[in-house]
Amino acid sequence: MRALAQTSSPQAELIDYKSIALLSAAHLTDDLNQGVVPAMLPFFIAANHLTYAAAAGLILAQTLSSSVVQPLFGLLADRRPSPWLIPVGLSFAGIGVALAGMAPSYGLIFAAIALSGLGISAFHPEAARRVRYLSGSRQATTMSLFTVGGMAGFALGPLLITPIVIAFGVRGAIVLALPVLIMAVALTHQLPRLAAAHASLLVGVRAHAQIDSAEQWNDFILLTVVVVLRSMVFFGLNTFIPLYWSHVLGGTRTGGGLALTTLLVAVTVGTLIGGRLADRYGRKIVIVVSLGALAPLMLTFLSVHGLTAAGI
């Protein structure tokens, strides 16, 4: 056992927990800006007399710019390491949402939220790449921490922004620029440390890694379709739960924000539980069972009329 401990020690020393914690906190701050936009929709509708379709268009602006463009930033990260994208992307993510609250017209709100989405898109590939380099032999564990940081940001967004916009109106969204800029300064200060994290840190791990000789495109495409279908449901709920809560169930706008936070906290907890179940029972069965349960659960949610039952 002593020999085993000595063998695993060099790999353990490769793990830079300080930098991983910083990147996870940055992921929380980054995805905070995705979580706040759905909670702001009822206030945008009231302030600018938007239709539901126009309000959904704001989510579309952020989702498309943060998702569709992201592979291009991933390609850039693969071809030319660009750690500077981490603080710059994070800055644009927060500044875009802050500007959306101050924009006087729908077109400018749309553009500001799209700018926020571009910042979110720029942040993720390079930040995830650095986490992988810094993870030593525990890439799954550290990546789960990085992922949960983002989900926590999603969940905290509605909880943070709802009382702010109730007190100050949509212009209060400028407050969101403060934590983003503070985190961007911290990342810039640590940029040399993050930039030094390169593939050489994985030498000890690669000796034990199993690398498939062929890319499995059929399985990749199937999994991508599953992710797309799951994301349609997630972003649909993420967009319309605050509106459904206040306009259909008769709840308050504050309650709508809390309902959205409840959903996102449950997503975070489900992510952690799903990972454990997948390790124990297999990934495929967890995917099939969880997706299969969505339809009856959504029908149940739409069939209840009380706020307590809907929250449960």
How would you portray this structure in words?
It is a single chain. With about 300 residues, this protein is mainly α. Helices cover about 80% and strands about 0% of the residues. It contains 14 helices and no strands. It has helices at about 1-15, 15-50, 50-65, 70-80, 85-100, 105-135, 140-170, 175-190, 190-195, 205, 215-245, 255-280, 285-305, 305-310.
Secondary structure topology:
Layout: H1 2-13, H2 17-48, H3 52-67, H4 70-79, H5 85-102, H6 106-134, H7 139-168, H8 177-189, H9 191-195, H10 203-206, H11 217-247, H12 253-281, H13 283-303, H14 307-311
Alpha-beta classification: mainly alpha
Q: What's the pLDDT, averaged over the residues? A: 81
Proportion in helices: over 70%
**Distance between the ends:** 48 Å
Q: What amount of the residues lies in strands?
A: under 5%
Q: Count the beta strands.
A: 0
Q: What are the secondary-structure elements, in order, as H or E?
A: HHHHHHHHHHHHHH
The general outline is globular
Q: How many distinct helices?
A: 14
Largest sheet: none
Radius of gyration: 21 Å
Regions with little confidence, pLDDT below 50 for 5+ residues: 1-13, 199-212
Give descriptors for this structure:
312 residues; mainly alpha; 0% strand
Q: In a nutshell, what does this entry contain?
A:
The relative contact order is 0.14. The protein starts with a helix and ends with a helix.
